[in-house]
Amino acid sequence: MFDLDKWQEIFAALKKNKMRTFLTAFGVFWGIFMLIIMLGSGRGLQNAVFDGMKDFATNSIFLMPSPTSEPHAGFPRGRRYNFRNADIEALRNGIPEIDLIAPRMQARGGSNATDNVVRGIKTGAFTVNGDYPEWNMIDPVKMVNGRFLNHLDILHKRKVAVIGNLVQEILFEKEEDPLGQYIRINGVYFQVIGVFTPLNSNMNFGGDKAQNIFIPFTTLQQTYNYGDVVGWFAITAKPEVPASVVDAKARELLKRRHRVAPHDQQAIQGWNMEEEFKKVSGLFMGIEVLVWIVGIGTLLAGVIGISNIMLIVVKERTKEIGIQRALGATPRKIISQIITESVFLTTIAGYMGLSIAVFLLEMINKALAANPSDNMAFKNPEVDFNIAITALIILIVSGALAGLMPAQRAVSIKPIDALRDE
What was the pLDDT predicted at 401? Predict the structure, then answer.
């Protein structure tokens, strides 16, 4: 049942100490406000990073040959070697845990090299990749016109090309349809069969993906006289198989095939996207834990302030408490009264801090949505509803605990001593 007299007493006590009440409540307000803002900001950073990786195959590994660092099988240290076409089937047949294999070769042989591409009087420098269709399942792009490479292109070594949207903008007129048109790459003509835009803004191999051109892997080898050389491999593991298992087996197999010392750590360079993804996830988990530590520390400072002001309230109301006890008020009623005041103060301050923080995050989110960008470093800052409610519940419980010690002090005073208090 709602006790009007009780709540009038609470408001009167808080009003009497309004300056101390305001300052103490502000400490609680600021604590939960900063906790929610920091949690939302951390989630905004995490959303931006993971959104740039969302379509990328995180169970993938990338391997490329590098000069050896140890002599082996009669070969000197520093020997250069290349992966070969035969390694494709050897990997596929020798490692059952492999799901996809996508060999890649670049026209000028380097990851940062660009090629001269001409159409009529227009020219540009773009990255030209020789790929298998599987590459688009590992690092996918969005086809806006035409199609991606297929296995018939690989089998027949067709001179076809899939171009990025920026390549289209530079080489073609605004309203011109590039499909079926020809571009000249390092002196050789290729027919455009598709136009794409990037999906993963944070994963760029060989520079800006929108300025990339894909041609069939076998066509590149033959057209630019690379024989059966493979630049590097992109490999994915089957579901439920750790990418590290495939990584270790692939390195062992390739070292054995190319007579590289088993313990040579430099002969095969590359990285494991699964491990990198875990590192990023661990980083954001660490940030969230740090935010909770700082936020809870700030909240505790506010709660301690609540406890202190309630001790002052008890001190100032000693005679009033003595009168209540003399008139028959039970210790339970006195404790309930003090704790209710403490919980009321922390709840109001906490709710205001929570509401304003959520409102501010929503305003930031709307501002970002009104000015979208492909390379946003901060996206959709938000706080999970359950986390927000949990923080508020923690605050209310803390408020109750903050009022417990002053309440115990209030009931420990004997009525006769309280009545004598000046």
Answer: 76
Burial environment of residue 319 by CB neighbours within 10 A (0 to 12, 13 to 18, 19 or more): middle
Q: Do 405 and 335 meet the contact criterion of CB atoms below 8 Å apart?
A: no
116/213 Cα distance (integer angstroms): 11
pLDDT score recorded for residue 1 = 44
pLDDT band at 325 (very low <50, low <70, confident <90, very high): low
Tell me the pTM: 0.71
Residues 191-219 have pLDDT tens digits of 999 999 988 655 555 567 889 999 999 99
Quick one: pLDDT at residue 419? 54
Express each pLDDT in 301-312 by its tens digit. 777 777 777 666
Question: What Å distances lie between residue 32 and 168, 297, 300, 349, CA to CA?
Answer: 51, 10, 10, 9
Q: How confident is the model at residue 2 (pLDDT cuts 50, 70, 90)?
A: very low
β-pairing, 160-164 with 83-84? unpaired
